[in-house]
């Protein structure tokens, strides 16, 4: 075989033959000159093998021809940030859980792999995930999977609630900056968990979780969720004070209520959980993704389009909707539908500051910035949640955007037109922002490394295509 290029990446594959390992495997792909998909050498801790891997998607990109106004109707699916903690929560009951409207995303598959690795039986078909956690047999979470996704730390609370121990590695930092887990650890310690930290691993153990008052120094979404999950089966009452108020926290509470947990207050800054001895089988429909909703609205707005977004929860996207109205879009809310009619060119809004819910979501900062690059006037962004969430800026600048960064502030001077360019998705929302920019750019835009985008958007290209965008995907 003539080697043209070499690529190294992590991918979840089903090993050939009778091997029953289904884990995160390191793959070295050797590209043949004539064909991009040839052989892959896969290495994991237990085996090395060569696989003819015609179906593997090595390098995926989106190619966008800008200029089309988006028009039509699009349905929003279940939220990534709701389904991930809820999947972790299924461990608690030791019974069956049926989850509907689950998005088919890379992160969801990683969470499924994690649950399988500790013994759960899972099926995922037509947006329905069925988890049977009665067969749980391990408390050790494979490091390779933990490193793939920060949300793996959601396993801490449920594993401690269910079997009193967990061994898990640090999830590590990520593209958007360092993401410590000190608040998670503090909350779990308050519930009585002994935690030993060594060589990048956390070994946590508790005889019996004890209800307590947890004062979060910051309303961290993940730490609030982990504390809720750990407290569900603790002895006595737990109060989480300065809890995060994001809608995904309410969704988690609603799922826990279905399982028979005694919990109230989610959506406010104080959540109260009265521990119960046992939880039961539950069926639940995941809430619609508010960030995908906001992203589609931003995409409609940048193209001067007229779109109808269905299966949305308008109250969840108010911070984004009010900014879109400020920049001249007409938005009509009716039941679970949002209709957006955008002007030919939006006006700049002077200040966008990311804040915990109900403030403007950090997960919408990049997409809104893409919109502001072509607005009339100058807008100022302040990113207060994550330290390093401006990686899309250099890429937008390649497309002709005028943006200057000073620490946590980005100043965006709107230009009449962007021009298509070859750009690279550095993280999930930043990647989505580049696609949005491409929709309005003159000529062709290629967005590389869309693997990041696919962590959070199911068939992003198809959704936009349905609204009339010229976008296609190249493997
Ligand atoms: C899967 C999921 O739901 N992810 C969302 C969740 O992430 P995540 O739960 O990680 O976000 P947090 O609210 O915990 O993080 C917010 C800030 O608190 C800091 N922090 C957090 C925990 C901790 O122990 N110590 C600490 O310092 C973080 O570094 C960050 O600066 O909320 C974020 C903020 O809305 C969103 O951008 C993510 O999309
Ligand atoms: C940052 C995000 O997710 P995660 O916390 O899973 O990295 C996001 O959804 O924008």
TrEMBL record:
CDD domains xrefs: UdpNAET (cd01555)
Residues with 2-(S-cysteinyl)pyruvic acid O-phosphothioketal modification: 174
GO cellular component: cytoplasm
Record's subcellular location: Cytoplasm
Coiled coil residues, start to end: none
Source species, domain of life: Bacteria
Catalysis performed (reactions): phosphoenolpyruvate + UDP-N-acetyl-alpha-D-glucosamine = UDP-N-acetyl-3-O-(1-carboxyvinyl)-alpha-D-glucosamine + phosphate
NCBIfam families: murA (TIGR01072), PRK09369.1 (NF006873)
Keywords: Cell cycle, Cell division, Cell shape, Cell wall biogenesis/degradation, Cytoplasm, Peptidoglycan synthesis, Pyruvate, Transferase
Family statement drawn from the similarity comment of this UniProt entry: Belongs to the EPSP synthase family. MurA subfamily.
Protein name (Swiss-Prot/TrEMBL): UDP-N-acetylglucosamine 1-carboxyvinyltransferase
Domain Enolpyruvate transferase: 65-462
């Amino acid at each position: 075989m003539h080697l043209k290029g070499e690529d190294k990446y992590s991918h979840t594959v089903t090993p050939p033959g009778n091997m029953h390992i289904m884990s995160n495997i390191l793959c070295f792909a050797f590209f043949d000159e004539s064909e991009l998909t040839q052989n892959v050498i896969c290495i994991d801790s237990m085996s090395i093998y060569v696989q003819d891997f015609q179906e593997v998607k090595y390098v995926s990109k989106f190619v966008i021809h800008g200029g089309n106004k988006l028009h039509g109707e699009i349905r929003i699916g279940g939220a990534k940030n709701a389904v991930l903690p809820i999947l972790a929560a299924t461990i608690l009951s030791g019974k069956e859980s049926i989850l509907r409207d689950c998005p088919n995303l890379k992160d969801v598959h990683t969470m499924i792999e994690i649950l399988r690795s500790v013994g759960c039986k899972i099926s995922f078909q037509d947006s329905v995930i069925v988890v049977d956690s009665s067969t749980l047999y391990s408390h050790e979470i494979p490091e390779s999977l933990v490193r793939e996704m920060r949300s793996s730390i959601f396993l801490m609370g449920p594993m401690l609630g269910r079997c009193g121990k967990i061994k898990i590695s640090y999830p590590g930092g990520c593209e958007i900056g360092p993401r410590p887990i000190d608040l998670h650890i503090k909350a779990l310690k308050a519930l009585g968990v002994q935690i030993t930290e060594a060589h990048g691993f956390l070994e946590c153990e508790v005889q019996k979780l004890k209800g307590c008052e947890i004062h979060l120094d910051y309303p961290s979404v993940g730490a609030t969720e982990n504390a809720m999950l750990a407290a569900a089966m603790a002895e006595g009452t737990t109060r989480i004070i300065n809890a995060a108020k994001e809608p995904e926290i309410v969704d988690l509470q609603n799922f826990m209520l279905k399982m028979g947990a005694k919990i109230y207050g989610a959506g406010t800054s104080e959540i109260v959980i009265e521990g119960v001895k046992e939880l039961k089988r539950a069926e639940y429909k995941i809430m619609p993704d508010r960030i995908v909703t906001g992203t589609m609205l931003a995409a409609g707005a940048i193209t001067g389009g007229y779109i109808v977004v269905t299966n949305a929860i308008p109250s969840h996207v108010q911070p984004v909707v009010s900014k879109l109205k400020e920049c001249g879009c007409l938005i009509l809310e009716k039941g679970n539908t949002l209709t957006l009619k955008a002007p030919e060119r939006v006006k700049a809004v002077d200040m966008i500051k990311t804040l915990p819910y109900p403030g403007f979501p950090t997960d919408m900062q990049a997409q809104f910035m893409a919109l502001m690059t072509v607005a009339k006037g100058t807008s100022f962004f302040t990113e207060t949640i994550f330290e390093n969430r401006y990686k899309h800026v250099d890429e937008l600048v390649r497309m002709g955007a005028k943006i200057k960064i000073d620490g946590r502030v980005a100043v965006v001077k709107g230009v009449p037109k962007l021009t298509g360019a070859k750009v690279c998705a550095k993280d999930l929302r930043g990647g989505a922002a580049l696609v949005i920019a491409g929709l309005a750019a003159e000529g062709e835009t290629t967005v590389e490394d869309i693997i990041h985008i696919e962590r959070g958007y199911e068939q992003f290209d198809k959704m936009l295509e349905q609204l009339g965008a010229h976008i296609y995907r190249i493997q």
